Amino acid sequence: MTTRQTASFAALTLAALAGMATHASAAITGWTGNATQIAPPPSATFGSLTGAPARAWDEQQGFIAVGLPVDLSINPSSSLLPTAGVVNGLVDSHFIHLEDFSGASVVGTVTFNNPIVGVAYSDLFLDASDAAAGAGPTLYPTFTPFRGINSFAGAQSIVSISGNTISFDLLTTPGIADFEQIRVYTRIVPAPGSMALLGAGGLLAVRRRRVRN
């Protein structure tokens, strides 16, 4: 195989792998309780999505996270014993939003097709990741106070993660401009076809070296 042919094969292989990685990522696969999935909305600012259930949607997919801060960096873990850290590498992002003035407990789960590697639910960490992780068509309340969970002493929400699932018990304070927002990062797992292609590329490289020898 000539150098030009090898370069062409490498380019085609990378393109195929990129397509498979995209296909293997980016999915909310289920939900329970007072939760539902929606398409990325035009706005997630205060007053735009009111009332239960908690709404979940997919954000940026297959992007390289660089030091994005999270409140939960260990899986499994809970907001009762938070483990702050950062998320790096190839991930998908997802969002959960609740704005409810009733003060009632909103309990539910959201499950993804890939394992959770980090969750941001504090104001500062949500603000820091809106630009990098947010869905393109959605306007986020960046730098708006009280967007994260547990913004008020009277509203103690709880979030926990295990495997591919996030569970929540969200409480807002009646009569106050308080809403609950959570950003979830999941790690992309290569599809079986991607691994097969990588193996084929490796075998071809070995064969090329043998021919040269």
Write down how many β-strands occur, each being a DSSP E stretch of 2 or more residues: 11
Catalogue the unreliable spans: 4-23, 194-209
The whole-angstrom Rg is 21 Å
Structural class, from helix and strand content? alpha+beta
Give a quick account of the main beta sheet: strands, pairing sense, barrel closure. Answer: 6 strands, mixed
Distance between the termini: 13 Å
How would you state the average pLDDT, rounded?
82
The rough form would be described as globular
* Strand residues, percent: 25-35%
- Total helical elements: 3
The H/E string reads HEEEEEEEEHEEEH
Q: How helical, in percent, are the residues? A: 25-40%
Word description of this protein:
The protein is of the alpha+beta class and 213 residues long. The strands form 2 sheets. Strands 2, 3, 4, 6, 8 and 11 form a 6-stranded mixed sheet that branches. It has a 5-stranded antiparallel sheet with strand order 1-7-10-9-5, with no helix packed on it. Strand 9 and strand 10 form a beta hairpin.
Descriptive labels:
213 residues, alpha+beta, six-stranded mixed β-sheet, five-stranded antiparallel β-sheet, 3 helices, 11 strands, 25% helix
Give me the secondary-structure topology.
Elements: H1 3-24, E1 28-33, E2 35-37, E3 54-58, E4 63-70, E5 77-78, E6 85-98, E7 106-112, E8 116-120, H2 123-133, E9 158-162, E10 165-170, E11 180-187, H3 192-212
Summarize the structure.
This protein has 213 residues and is α+β, with helices and mostly antiparallel strands. Helix content is 25%, strand content 32%.
